[in-house]
Amino acid sequence: MDTFFENIIKNIKRKSITRRLITLLLSLLVLAFVYNLLLLPTGLVAGGVNGIAIVTNYVYGIDSSIMILLISSACLLFSFMYLGKERTLGSLLATFIYPLFVKLTAIITQGITINYDDKFLIIIFAGVIGGLANGFIYKTGFSNGGLPIISQILYKYYKIPIAKSSMVINSIIIIIGSIFFGWSMMMYAIILVFINNLMIDKVLLGISKNKAFYIVTAKEQEVKEYIIKNLKHSVTVFDVKGAFLEKKRNVLFSVIPKRDYYRVTEGIKLIDPKVFFVVEDAYEVKGGK
Fold first, then answer.
1. What DSSP character marks residue 226?
2. CA distance 21 to 271
3. 129 neighbors 34 (Cβ within 8 angstroms)
4. More confident residue, 134 or 86
5. pLDDT in tens, 191-215
6. Alpha-carbon torsion 246, 252, 254, 259, what sign?
7. What is the pLDDT of residue 89?
8. What is the CATH number of domain 210-282?
9. Which of 68, 217, 233, 250 has its CA 20 to 30 A from that of 125?
10. Phi and psi, residue 141, nearest 5°
């Protein structure tokens, strides 16, 4: 069985390798432009290798591409030592290509003039464009390497959650950046990180066009008929047992398009004022009627 699942993973990695590589390269190029056009000139230190490179460039005048290459290479070495060859390969390309793109785009962007007075507009563009590019990198199955490798190592050996260690590492970098660029830039950086993560989620999960309803009601038949006959959507019934009272109940499950959201919520509340229901986004729906 393990061999079966390993073959599935290998097939996923081989799938459309050319398209994935092109997407990776274009995304890294976009990130390099964002760095040189929007982040470096404004001192927006939003964590990660980019944040360290911005600080060292400002304080010591070190070329950003060199600093990014040095830090990313060190992280890649740690990945090979502690995470293994298989997990390291996904970060290999980005580790060396991204610094190269940063160097090349630094030359190109010298001739581009941007008004940096409106910082809020800058962080919106940097967050949206950078988030989209990062999202497409993750969607290809590759990694942009860098400091997230440290978080993966900490999780493997010390079971420290990746999200928690990443937040601590990036927070330290953001605070260091605020020392040199001002505390207001720290607040801008936090907004930038939020927008960036939001866009990554949108790329990976897509925009939800459907809502998944879980409904517990004493008027099960009426609710089913309302959804099936009036709204023309299917309903699945789950037989469950409550943990507290250990009482058996049925849960109605139905995936509803967003356009019918209001009609479902208001309709079932009119049928059963004591109805209990939970709604969540359904990003991908396949099969069924």
1. I
2. 53
3. yes
4. 134
5. 999 999 999 888 877 777 789 999 9
6. negative
7. 85
8. 3.30.70.120
9. 68
10. 95, -5
> Beta partners for 214?
253, 278
3-state secondary structure of 209: coil
Q: How confident is the model at residue 74 (pLDDT cuts 50, 70, 90)?
A: very high
Residue at token pair 């970060």: 91
Burial class of 217 by CB neighbour count within 10 A (0 to 12, 13 to 18, 19+): buried
How far is Cα 66 from Cα 100, in angstroms, rounded to an integer? 9
Supply the pTM of this predicted model: 0.78
The pLDDT value given to residue 133: 95
DSSP characters over 41-71: HHT---SHHHHHHHHHHHHH---HHHHHHHH
Q: Which residue has the tokens 């304080």?
A: 59
User: Which tokens go with 52?
Assistant: 């360290």
Mean pLDDT of the chain: 89
* For the chain, domain boundaries: 2-205, 210-282
CA atoms within 13 A on the CB side of 156: 13
Encoded tokens for 190: 């936090």
Give the Cα separation of 154 and 160 in Å (integer): 6
Token pair 């600093």 is at which residue?
Answer: 67
Q: How big is the chain by its Cα radius of gyration, in Å?
A: 24
| 237 strand-pairing partners | 252
- Residue 16's pLDDT is 72
CA 36 to CA 105: how far, in whole Å? 7
Neighbours of 175 (CB within 10 A): 14
Tokens representing residue 84 in the block: 């293994």
Residue 203 to residue 193: CA distance in whole angstroms: 15
CA atoms within 13 A on the CB side of 105: 22
Task: Please identify which residue in the block is written with the tokens 């609710």.
Answer: 223
Residues 99-147 have pLDDT tens digits of 999 999 999 999 898 999 999 999 999 999 999 999 999 888 788 889 9
What value does the mean pLDDT take over residues 255-279?
A: 91
Q: Write the single-letter amino acid at 272.
A: D
